[in-house]
Amino acid sequence: MRTRRIFFNRLAVDAQIGILDHERGATQPVHVDAEIDLAAADIPRHDGIAEVLDYRRLREAIVDECTRTHVNLIETLCDRLAARLLAQFAEVSHVRLRVSKPQAFADCSAVGVEISLGREDAQA
């Protein structure tokens, strides 16, 4: 079976995330790396956007979910993102997401969480 993967590298979003006092009521950057596998990956016959999943729609969903409300845990945000992408886009068969906070620690470039979830896992 032919598959297609859409990916985002270091999509930067200002999110309300964290459990510390200084993180509440403020935004901080998070980076989202996403690999989104599509089940039906037909070859576009007419080179038109209507023949493929428009990655602008995926980006909008990711940004919206990251900025929707304050989230305490990066794990929660990762789970919500994966669930939303699978629920909103029927073409998506599997997602691998990595969400990181680049300003969490001064002695590393980022800290984060990665999740890998397939449609069959989400329905279980």
UniProtKB/TrEMBL annotation:
This is 7,8-dihydroneopterin aldolase. Catalyzes the conversion of 7,8-dihydroneopterin to 6-hydroxymethyl-7,8-dihydropterin. Pfam families: FolB. The keyword Transmembrane does not apply. The keyword Amino-acid biosynthesis does not apply. Pathway: Cofactor biosynthesis; tetrahydrofolate biosynthesis; 2-amino-4-hydroxy-6-hydroxymethyl-7,8-dihydropteridine diphosphate from 7,8-dihydroneopterin triphosphate: step 3/4. Belongs to the DHNA family. Gene3D superfamilies: 3.30.1130.10. Residues 6-117 form the Dihydroneopterin aldolase/epimerase domain. It catalyses: 7,8-dihydroneopterin = 6-hydroxymethyl-7,8-dihydropterin + glycolaldehyde. It is an enzyme of class 4 (lyase). Its EC number is 4.1.2.25. Keywords: Folate biosynthesis, Lyase. It comes from Pigmentiphaga soli.
